[in-house]
Amino acid sequence: EMLVYRGEFPQLQDAHDTVSSELKYPLAYGYACVGKVQGIGKKVNSEWEGKLVFSFQPHTSHFVTNPQALFPIPSSLKPENACFLPNMETAVNLVQDGAPILGERVLVLGQGVVGLLTASLLSEFPLESLYIVDGIELRRNAIKVEGQKSKVNKLAPGDLRPSTFDLVYELTGSPSVLNTAIEHTAFSGRIIIGSWYGQKRAEIDLGGSFHRSRIKLISSQVSSISPELSGRWDKSRRFEVAWQALERIQPSKWITHRFSLEDAAKA
User: Fold this and answer.
1) Percent of the chain with pLDDT over 70
2) Looking at residue 15, what is its pLDDT?
């Protein structure tokens, strides 16, 4: 969203991309609508009326769509938690692409919404250590997961000391942070790049220790399933995992402000 807002959206030539490369403001954008079905057509099953649903729709007060574009929300989930479904699906995809192993050392750079969700899922693994890094104290202190198997160590960027990790996630949105990721990744370690940089550029140091390190740089994007998993996994199965994760993590606890659509500019 911020790439589009700032005019940094890339001109995509990827045949697999489903997002228009002509996105620019002003436009209706977004994909995290939650609400109740207020009316149905004559040929629609009456069970839909009044049902609480999720939809990948541009953010708006009302919209008209087909039942096939709606996801019924589990009765155990509050609407505020259901809004996080797209971000949770992204976090599930990031964890699957990283494939953390018992006893590994893991680092998550960036604690925006996707970083918080990813770190929350990782804390459920029996890791040797899990470190999160963010420059904003509010974000660093936001993660509190009940029953976590791994203690979460919280650091400001300047407090990250020389060390190496088996698995590193770059989720800051800043391409220059890739240098930090490379610097702190062990020999033959993995770096999962979940950030989308758009037209942003930065000098990346690939001429130092990286050249002999056999580090794997892995791009992770939620629009597809990893080829290693696609024989057994599909979007439906991954959504089911994401719904269950939302029930465990309850991300609505991170909401600090609420604004009406009319107050969007003020927000």
Assistant:
1) 94
2) 43
Residues near 53 by beta carbon (within 8 Å), at least 6 away in sequence: 34, 35, 36, 37, 70, 71, 72, 73
- Nearest CA to 54 among 20, 22, 78? 78
Rounded (5°) CA angle 211-167-112? 115
- Report whether 226 contacts 192 (CB < 8 A): no
Residue 213: both structure tokens together: 């390190």
Amino acid code (one letter) for 107? L
Q: Going edge to edge, which strands form the sheet with 105-109?
A: 152-155, 129-133, 105-109, 165-170, 185-193, 216-219
In single-letter form, the type of residue at position 74 comes to: P
3 state SS of 210: helix
Radius of gyration of the chain (CA): 20
pLDDT digits (tens, 9 = 90+) for 18-56: 555 567 777 788 889 999 999 999 999 999 999 999 999
DSSP structural state of residue 48: G
Residue 218 is which amino acid?
I
Supply φ then ψ for residue 47, to 5 degrees: -65, -20
CA dihedral 152, 157, 162, 167 (to 10 degrees): 50
